[in-house]
Write a structure and sequence with these properties.
The structure is a single chain. Among the domains are: 1-94, Winged helix-like DNA-binding domain superfamily/Winged helix DNA-binding domain (Arc Repressor Mutant, subunit A, Orthogonal Bundle), CATH 1.10.10.10; 165-267, 3-Layer(aba) Sandwich (D-Maltodextrin-Binding Protein, domain 2). Helix content is 44%, strand content 20%. It is an alpha/beta fold. The strands form 2 sheets. Strands 3, 4, 5, 6, 7, 8, 9, 10 and 11 form a 9-stranded mixed beta sheet that branches. Strands 1-2 form a two-stranded antiparallel ribbon. The chain has helices at residues 5-17, 20-27, 31-45, 60-85, 104-107, 134-139, 173-179, 186-191, 203-212, 226-235, 244-253, 279-293; strands at residues 50-51, 57-58, 96-102, 122-128, 145-148, 157-171, 194-196, 220-222, 239-243, 257-258, 265-274. The N and C termini lie far apart (46 Å). One of its GO terms (molecular function) is DNA-binding transcription factor activity. Belongs to the LysR transcriptional regulatory family. It comes from Cellulomonas uda. It holds the Pfam family LysR_substrate.
Length: 297
């Protein structure tokens, strides 16, 4: 099957930008032209590729072709760079966009170091997502690579371990005294309010179940901000899980204490990326592995 490169670019732009209008602005064409290219591609493959919602979403066949479009863009960029290095006047063209899904705790700690000094012509589009869900963005072609808790390689991807992020159950001293006067029991965990990053964050429930041997269902506050999360823990809103690196200062000052001293939850993290081998993707992978090695267990 011969696929038109401009049509593939239009499909990828729509899915990455979320609307036909935004894709048109990125490609410097009219929204009508983008729509015509996507429609022509759909007719070519005989399947619907885009769910016309806000934002637009890929169908399963659309995700396959979006991934192909991204791989072609990477290959084109690296070929242009090699030609330029060989003394040709080949311009690199538009920047190569690498969409990467990263969990919030990594994004706020070790991951930024991997992006310092990126090669010219490479731009990153970071998508913040829970480590248990980042692999979904790889499956649907939304991202090129992801920091994920999934050890099994997504189809069409390579995987390598990065290390583990250690999480501690933390609480303000006054909250500990109020809700856990007799220690961490199942009854206390059912009553004590808990903080979670969002509805996909299950760390607190997993830790509680590990402590008492069964699931518990406490009242939950959702706080989707790393900074606010720690501030509200210290202010006494409830207990919650935070990485040891993020909580180091609060533990040192006594603003927060372990809810269950000597217990923690280690979350192994993995780097998954398209199995395509290109200098750009290989460089990003080396950077991520190097940055993780300095911070993760």
């Amino acid at each position: 099957m011969n696929l038109d490169a401009e049509q593939l670019r239009a499909l990828a732009a729509v899915l990455e930008e979320g609307t036909f209008e935004a894709a048109a602005a990125r490609l410097h064409v009219t929204p009508s032209a983008v729509s015509q290219r996507v429609r022509a591609l759909e007719q070519r493959v005989g399947q619907v590729l885009v769910v016309r919602s806000r934002p637009c979403r890929a169908t399963e066949p659309g995700a396959v072709l979006a991934r192909l479009a991204g791989q072609v863009a990477l290959l084109e960029r690296d070929a242009a760079a090699e030609l330029a290095g060989a003394g040709h006047d080949e311009a690199a063209g538009a920047p190569t966009r690498l969409a990467v899904a990263v969990n919030a705790d990594s994004l706020s700690s070790w991951f930024p170091a991997a992006l310092v000094g990126l090669p010219e012509g490479v731009v990153v589009d970071l998508r913040r997502e829970d480590q248990d869900r980042t692999a979904e963005l790889l499956r649907d072609g939304t991202v090129t690579a992801a920091v994920t808790a999934q050890a099994h390689a997504v189809q069409g991807c390579r995987v390598r371990p990065l290390g583990a992020m250690r999480y501690l159950g933390l609480v303000a001293p006054a909250v500990r005294d109020r809700w856990f006067p007799d220690g961490v029991t199942a009854a206390a965990l059912e009553r004590a309010p808990v903080l979670a990053f969002n509805r996909a964050d299950t760390l607190q429930h997993r830790f509680a179940a590990a402590l008492v041997g069964r699931d518990v269902a406490p009242p939950v506050h959702h706080v989707p901000s790393n900074t606010a999360f720690l501030e509200l823990l210290a202010a006494g809103l409830g207990w919650g899980m935070a990485s040891e690196a993020a909580a180091a200062d609060a533990l040192a000052t006594g603003a927060l204490v372990d809810v269950a001293p000597g217990r923690w939850l280690d979350v192994p993290l993995y780097w998954q990326h398209w199995s395509l081998r290109t200098p750009t993707l290989d460089d990003l992978t080396a950077r991520v592995v190097r940055a993780a090695s300095t911070s993760l267990r």
